[in-house]
Amino acid sequence: MDPKPPRRRSLGLEGRSGALAMALALPATAAAGALLWIGDHGSLVRWSATALLAALWILLGLALRAQVVRPLRTLANLLETLRTGDYSIRARAGHETGALGAIHGELHQLAGRLQEQRLGALEAAALVRKMMAEIDLAVFTFDPGGRMRQVNRAGERLLGQDAERLLGQRAERLGLADLLEGPARRTVERSFAGAGGRWEVRRGRFREGGAPHHLLVVADLSKALREEERLAWQRLIRVLGHELNNSLTPIQSMASTLRELVPEEPADETREDLRRGLEVIEQRSRAVSRFVASYARLARLPPPRFEPVSLSSLVRDVTALEDRLEARLVPGPEIVVEADRGQLEQLLINLLGNAVDAVSAAGGEVTVAWRLDGGRAILEVADDGPGLPESANLFVPFFTTKPGGSGIGLVLCRQIADAHDAELRVENRPGTSGCIATLILPLDVASRRE
Predict the structure, then answer these.
(1) Cα 325 to Cα 321: distance, rounded to the nearest angstrom
(2) Dihedral angle at the C-alpha atoms of 269, 275, 281, 286, nearest 10 degrees?
């Protein structure tokens, strides 16, 4: 087969415009030159005039070409700026009329419209990012290869790592691969970064850059259930407290009055038993009143007032209050969290008191430590006591494992932790005796102060 002949290169619009301009000027230039050579002129004049006419012919052609090409180049530059996303450049088209002026006007309107649309898209994207950051749902996106592309703050807290470490990692490595398969909406029981519970999982698909991506949303059902449970207990405690106080107050008053009315003389066994019985009634009435009052604190716990709190200073102040046993401190880094200092002090006092109670009988040591783990502050109170019984009721009101306990300490601690978006775990120490209480405080809580 014969090779195809090479295609001739076109002159293009610029070349054709220049050739046409010179062709239009050629007849007039040729006629002027002919008149010079026909007339009675010297040789020098003829050649000089001919050269001048040729130069004028070339310059005229170039000028005509420039008049055609320059506006087109201006339009090309404007279109290039629009293509690159710069909508601020405008052409000076005040002196242009006709078709060229109309083109400039349309380009100006197009640039203005594109600028408005881009501003709207940026504002919408900023709103979506703000919503993702603020919602209390863990949101993740993955590319077709299963690598994480986006994560919000709730997702960082769920996985216990910041976004810089999470982005680009595969779903298998993060333990999320199985959640990208199966039903689009389901409830699972599992642990994330050591936090176990029930989770609602929703997944979907969307396209970005023409490629399908995965959207994964994980909601903590345990926290919502705990909140409903807490509200139910508060309502129950309010009702019981009101009714018990209405009954205990007159009983306590009448027992005290009757005990004073019983004459001491003449002394006999009957009068002594009566006085002793009335005294027991009065003491137990006071004890039950104190018991009810302690539970009323659960219903009256105010919302936390957030301020910067030094974790090391807090730990040292609280451990200094415990005079039964000197806790061993394991110093950690200087950590400042946004929290209600008074409520955190009460939480730590309860945890430290439980640890000291656990080792007071058989002896042992209580250790308090704090450290940083990604975007979280970890506070641990460990003891060498006998440990906890296997029970799922540690955070249930009225439940206690200590003789004479009220069953309110850990419940109050859990309520304070939930109010700080923190997590509280109480479990037996692995591989040894004793118990360890772990408080996990997020560091990115500044938005809660708004």
Answers:
(1) 10
(2) -140
Token pair 């008149």 is found at 35
What CA–CA distance (Å, rounded) separates 6 from 15? 20
Round to whole Å and give the CA distance between 230 and 223. Answer: 10
Q: Is the four-CA dihedral 204, 208, 210, 212 of positive or negative sign? A: negative
What is the DSSP code string of 317-372? Answer: HHHHH--SS-PEEE-----EEEE-HHHHHHHHHHHHHHHHHHHHTT---EEEEEEE
* Residues near 200 by beta carbon (within 8 Å), at least 6 away in sequence: 185, 186, 187, 218, 219, 221
Dihedral (Cα; 257, 262, 263, 268), 10-degree rounding: -150
Torsion, CA 427, CA 431, CA 433, CA 435, rounded to 10 = -20
Query: Helix H segments across 262-305?
Result: 269-300
Residue 1, pLDDT > 60, answer no
Token output for 258: 């009757």
Tell me if 370 sits within 8 A of 312, measured CB to CB. Answer: yes
For 372, phi then psi, to 5°, come to -100, 140
Would you call 56 exposed, middle or buried from its count of C-beta atoms within 10 A (0-12, 13-18, 19+)? middle
DSSP state of 384: -
Q: Is the pTM of this model over 0.70?
A: no
Token reading at 41 = 């002129």
Mean pLDDT check: name the lowest of 30-34, 146-150, 252-256. Answer: 30-34
Q: Is the pLDDT of residue 23 over 50?
A: yes
Contact 350, 409 (CB under 8 A): yes
pLDDT of residue 446: 39
Residues 6+ apart with CB under 8 A from 13: 68, 69, 72
Q: Both ends of the chain: CA-CA distance in Å?
A: 80
Q: How confident is the model at residue 384 (pLDDT cuts 50, 70, 90)?
A: very high
CA dihedral 27, 31, 32, 33 (to 10 degrees): 100
Helix (H) or strand (E) holding 131: helix 98-134
Helix or strand run (H / E) with residue 206: strand 195-208
